[in-house]
Design goal:
CATH topology: TIM Barrel
CATH class: Alpha Beta
Structural class: alpha/beta
Distance between the termini: 39 Å
Number of strands: 15
CATH superfamily: Metal-dependent hydrolases
Shape: globular
């Protein structure tokens, strides 16, 4: 561990925390930065928080949320699905198009949670749930203006390509999204679901660094055949460097499909919740931690799971500092416990599995402040 000497007394020490690789340390914070990683019990600061029994990681990142509270059903408050759930950075997955992205940006300024966003290619966003049913709503000029106005917020473009969204337009909205992606030099996040269009039409249009979200959904139009084998379009997409994102949601995560993916070594690049008010309060999502617990039960290691909400998400966002715990870096941390005891976990198809261990966030450090988590069932 690196040690730093400071003439000024540090403000907070997180004492005896455990890293996911098994190391223990005292994390000494000096304002908004990590001052030192000290041996357990040796960190010095004005205040000490005893973290015995807790893990620490860089702050969790949820790559797929809906954080524009004015929209119903797909909306929620930023901090409600952010720091109160142990998540220090959320990425809104296309709630807003060009019409209202400015309002989302304004709401981020009053929140404590870090917010980034995918811009919906439909200018109306999720003000209605068939936002790609009229091609004139895909306004390239308005989208370009939005990207120019909010370069620090917008990380990519979002296209929801399922039958209920595109209606009679089939694959054409995705072709238009692909063109817009090239013009704006931004990757796509593509939602998959019930057809048409058929999944074999959708996946070949995704390129390296595009995000395929809901890849473990159990709908008829999914990425695995009846025997649980991955379709060729999925394995080809992985070979191209397409990024696999969970995006659990109300209807987009199946234990059956996730177990098939696990058998074939098709692990998620990022674990995300697709959380909004309804599935936070009523399930089956509840929280990012609940989704992470499902992967723990599926047999993924704690290190793999935490990396999927920290390091790998931060790298995709081109913000690697969000995934690191190092002296000199900003203090962006999540404290959590792995607790024993039977916990029922429900997927989007109503299947219930009983887990013997589950992940529970206990607190975050963000912008120089510690905050306890407040998951509200």
């Amino acid at each position: 561990m690196r040690e730093h000497n400071h003439t000024q007394e540090a403000t907070l020490v997180l004492s005896n925390v455990r890293m996911t690789d098994g190391r223990r340390a005292d994390i000494v914070l000096d304002g908004e930065h990590i001052a030192e990683l000290a041996p357990p019990g040796q960190g010095q600061a004005e205040r000490k928080l005893d973290c015995t029994g807790l893990y620490v990681s860089s702050g969790w990142i949820d790559m797929h949320v809906h954080a524009f509270p004015e929209f119903d059903p797909y909306g929620d408050e930023i901090d409600e699905i952010g720091i109160r759930q142990g998540v220090t950075t959320i990425v809104d997955a296309g709630s807003c198009g060009a019409d209202r992205i400015g309002e989302l940006a304004a709401s981020a300024r009053s929140a404590r949670t870090n917010l980034l966003a995918f811009l919906n290619i439909s200018r109306i966003g999720l003000s209605r749930i068939d936002e790609l049913s009229r091609l004139e709503w895909i306004d390239a000029e308005r989208a370009a203006e939005a990207v120019r106005a909010h370069p620090d917020l917008i990380v990519g473009l979002k296209a929801r390509i399922s039958g209920s969204v595109v209606k009679e337009n089939g694959i054409q909205p995705l072709r238009m999204a692909r063109s817009l992606s090239g013009a704006l030099s931004l990757p796509l996040m593509v939602h998959i679901g019930s057809g048409p269009p058929d999944i074999t039409e959708v996946i070949p249009l995704l390129e390296k660094n595009d995000v395929l979200t809901h890849y473990l959904n159990g709908k008829h139009n999914n990425l695995f055949d009846a025997a649980g084998n991955p379709l060729p379009v999925l394995t080809e997409a992985i070979s191209r460097g397409v990024h696999l994102d969970v995006g659990h949601g109300t209807a987009s995560f199946s234990f059956r499909v996730a177990e098939a993916a696990r058998r074939h070594g098709i692990a998620p690049d990022t674990i995300s919740s697709d959380i909004y008010r309804g599935n936070r309060l009523n399930g089956p999502v509840y929280s990012l931690a609940n989704v992470m617990s499902k992967f723990l039960h599926l047999g993924y290691s704690l290190q793999e799971i935490v990396d999927a909400v920290t390091v790998r998400a931060a790298d995709w966002l081109n913000r690697p500092e969000l995934g690191r715990i190092r002296p000199g870096e900003s203090a962006n941390l999540t404290l959590f416990a792995v607790e024993d005891g039977p916990v029922p976990l429900t997927d989007s198809e109503g299947a219930v599995l009983t887990a013997s261990h589950s992940i529970h966030p206990k607190g975050v450090v963000i912008h120089g402040q510690y905050a306890a988590c407040e998951i509200r069932p």
